[in-house]
Amino acid sequence: MDGALIVDKPAGMTSHDVVAVIRKLAATRRVGHTGTLDPFATGVLVVLVGRATRLMQFLNASEKEYEAVIRLGYATDTGDITGRPLPTQEDAPVAERLAREEIESAIASLRGEIEQVPPMYSAKKIQGRKLYELARRGEHIERQAARVKITAFEVVEKDGVFMKLNADATLDLTVRVACSAGTYVRTLAEDLGKRLGVGAHLAELRRTRAGHFKMEQANTLSRLTDLASARGIHEAIISPDETLAYLQALNVSDDQVRRISNGIDLECESKFENQEHVRLRDGSGRLIAVGVYDENKRAVHPKVVLAS
């Protein structure tokens, strides 16, 4: 059983918790995930099974898309709804201070390539230590800003309403965000608040796309459990070749399959970009390896081999 499962992660579970469930359902230890989701977040989590776990390096850098709710009115120590509210110096409710045009202008300023400082409550490691472990011990360390790309950042109106006024006088903005790997949406929420001069945090987060995998392809853990009890979760598995469908493909002969399986370069005249990753498939369309094209050698070097 080799390939990818697209899981709709429920709230309250870590990404590792999901992996543990899939290990039991697939009866294999060879399971991993790409693109960690926080426990309170939901949505698309790509889980790789069997030999397809070797493909993780080709998926980790894919663009992600989210639907989120940013709450304006106060900040929290974690940047999201799970944290403790921080003291506020607000002299008036945010609903009385913020206009639609001001919010849209601040959102527009956060599109494109921007600098982000990783939050203390994150799984990012610095000198081998996870930041959230340090934060829970009350430690705070300096973090270097990283460059990320925000492809889309816009308000999604619900029933024609631009922003929702809550009973506690806070405002909720539902937004769509498409961003590069490594982007922290809660940091984006905090940065929006700073531009508006108010406290802000992430109230909800749902990933709707990871690379070319969309929510429509996602399976709930309940459905996968039912499949495992009935016919097996192989029905929900996406083949390794389809998992990397965004890469260009090159079909090879049986003799070339044997050579590639032994790590021998494949000479070709195909006009790939230098250092471009290429799917190498046998006659039946089965992914046997992912190679890297070298324009000087005019050859594809097998980087990851799946075929035995």
Task: Please write the string of helix (H) and strand (E) elements.
Answer: EHEEEHHEEEHEEEHEEHHEHEEEE
Going by CATH, the homologous superfamily of the largest domain would be Pseudouridine synthase
**How many strands, what sense, and barrel or not for the largest sheet?**
10 strands, mixed
SS-based class: alpha+beta
Q: What would you say the CATH architecture of the largest domain is?
A: 2-Layer Sandwich
Which parts are unreliable, with pLDDT below 50 for 5 consecutive residues or more?
none
In angstroms, what is the radius of gyration? 22 Å
CATH class of the largest domain: Alpha Beta
The dominant shape is: elongated
Count of DSSP H/I helices: 8
Note the beta-strand portion: 25-35%
Average per-residue pLDDT, rounded, comes to 92
Overall domain count: 3
Q: Could you explain how this protein is built, in words?
A:
- The chain has 308 residues and is an alpha+beta fold.
- The chain folds into 3 domains: 3-62 and 212-241, Pseudouridine synthase; 64-210, Pseudouridine synthase (2-Layer Sandwich), CATH 3.30.2350; 247-305, PUA domain (Archaeosine Trna-guanine Transglycosylase, Chain: A, domain 4, Roll), CATH 2.30.130.
- The chain contains 8 helices and 17 strands.
- Helix 1 (15-26) runs parallel beside helix 6.
- The mean pLDDT is 92.
